[in-house]
Amino acid sequence: MRHRRNPRVFLEVKIGAAAGGRVEFELFADTCPETAENFRGLCTGEYGPELTYRNSKIFKSVKGEGLQGGDIIANDGSSGLSVYGKPFRDENSINKHSGAGILTTTYQGEKRHNNTSQYMVTYARSRALDFRHVPFGRVTRGMEVIRAIEKVPTDDQDRPRVDIIIVKCGMVGKKEVD
């Protein structure tokens, strides 16, 4: 369990034509404040209408490893935006990829210190990601939705064969982005 003042956010997901469900996250603002605020702001949409996860896709899923999303521009992993107006640097690596449901940074082209809106949620423990990506949150509810995404068939480039779309997002207990 983490600091009880850490913000909690949600992503509501649609998998193909079916409702996938809601995933809630605790963001580690106590250890990664800049990264947590970026994700929180993209969930609420409060930094501008184009700065939201709403209608973005999960564009990659690697069974046994994790899902990737957050390309709020092209929806294919080639781009992203941050609430700060530019990419931002990695924060500390105190947190580890200790199991399934860890919310972590990911980059376009694997270039470090290039954080934007893209993120990854792990399907399993991954020591290989430690010190390369920054874990800044964890799933607190809705791990069954993450497991359902993991089961979606993918093509030879790990792209889901059906659209997986964030249909709503926001702060837990607050009004979601419409």
From TrEMBL:
Record's catalysed reaction(s): [protein]-peptidylproline (omega=180) = [protein]-peptidylproline (omega=0)
Matching PROSITE patterns: CSA_PPIASE_2
One Gene Ontology MF term: cyclosporin A binding
UniProt domain PPIase cyclophilin-type: residue ranges: 10-171
GO biological process, one term: protein folding
InterPro entries: Cyclophilin-like_dom_sf (IPR029000), Cyclophilin-type_PPIase (IPR024936), Cyclophilin-type_PPIase_dom (IPR002130)
Keyword tags: Isomerase, Rotamase
GO CC annotation: cytoplasm
Keyword Isomerase attributed: yes
Keyword RNA-binding included in the entry's annotation: no
Domain of life of the organism encoding this protein: Eukaryota
EC number: 5.2.1.8
Role, per record: PPIases accelerate the folding of proteins. It catalyzes the cis-trans isomerization of proline imidic peptide bonds in oligopeptides.
Family of the protein in this entry: Belongs to the cyclophilin-type PPIase family.
Protein name: Peptidyl-prolyl cis-trans isomerase
Gene name of the encoded protein: SYF2_3
